[in-house]
Amino acid sequence: MDQMDQNVNQETQRIPQPGSTRRRSRRQKNGGCAGTVVYVIAVLGISIILSLAAIFVANDVFAFVKENAVKEITVTENTDLLSVAKQLDDEGVINYGTIFKLYVRIKGDNEGVLAGSYALNPNMDYGQIIDTLVNASSTETMQITVPEGYSVAQIKQMLLDEHVCTSDALDEALNEYPFKHEFLKEELPAEEGWLEGYLFPDTYEIYKGNATVVDTINKMLNNFDNKYDDEIKAGAEALGRSMHDIVTVASLVEREAQADSERATIAGVIYNRLNNASEFPYLQVDASVLYGLGRSGGKLSEEDLASDTPYNLYTKQGLPPGPICNPGYASLYAAAYPESHNYYYYVAMPDGTHLFANSYDEHQANIATSNAAQAAAAAAAANTEGAGE
Length: 389
Fold this sequence. Notes:
- The protein has helices at residues 2-14, 18-62, 81-90, 97-107, 126-135, 152-161, 167-175, 213-227, 230-239, 243-256, 263-275, 286-292, 302-305, 329-336, 360-388; strands spanning 71-75, 79-80, 112-113, 116-120, 137-145, 203-209, 345-348, 354-357.
- Helix 10 crosses helix 14.
- The chain contains 15 helices and eight strands.
- By secondary structure, the chain is mainly alpha-helical.
- The strands form four sheets. A two-stranded antiparallel ribbon has the order 1-4.
- The model has no long low-confidence stretch (mean pLDDT 86).
- A hairpin with a 5-residue loop joins strand 7 (345-348) and strand 8.
- 53% of the residues lie in helices and 10% in strands.
């Protein structure tokens, strides 16, 4: 009996008590519910934070609700949109310079900004800010003078030096904009250098800014159209030459002639060689060689004279592919009405005039005379400089 009672007691100890089981189950359920609540709160919190961030960023990008206040910023030389982002942020035009940079990169609009002062407003969206910085134009005019004989590259540099516009805007106008002038039809499609010869050298009243750069170039082209008058057209027709030929010859004359009285004479030498190509296959114009080398002056070496460019008229026959500069009216007229003579050679003297010859032997004698005169001029300059010291 005692043994039986003992066994019964042991079995009773093994049986879990109902009360304790219920309490443990409730704790597990309560713990699971609390974890779920925390997770939901965390998700909601993160969502709210992200939503608020998105709202703030969107407001900065699209300017939904921003203050109305004029902020003036000054942009220095050689600044692009990415570089100006911090300045916009610091001045309060935008709130997130990093987002602005990302916007510019995504849009692919990292263009140059013309140096100067800009009035911007925080209530402008990113697109309006970029448009103002890139396409801003002044209401004030400025005067520029394009010298006769300047190449397109020289005109571009002059406009940049005068802070007329940015390099990107100028490149687009010069190399990509399809100007509709009748005389340019044969030069299309637009490409680098296609306007060479047609930007007429003169004094112009222009507006500063990228938005007006096409108008500036258009003024030069319109001026050329007016200056290439009926008299020049008649001379070209009498010579059996196209406008392209006349402008190309005029550009050679412009770069070679320093004395006005010699323009028609030099034009005559060029046509004499062109019309006697079997005996004189090469024009041998130094200015064209320099242009092909990307230079506007200086002495030519033996290596230069052997250079393989389309403008090397010591190795390429006939006229160069196109004009080598933008000639003035006097050179255009000389190209249309060359002097009639028998000269095939010329060599420069120290004062810029030339000695002309109709035979090679006479030309060699003129070269000797020129060399002696150049040497004497150099010695005189050295003596003057030494006396000045």
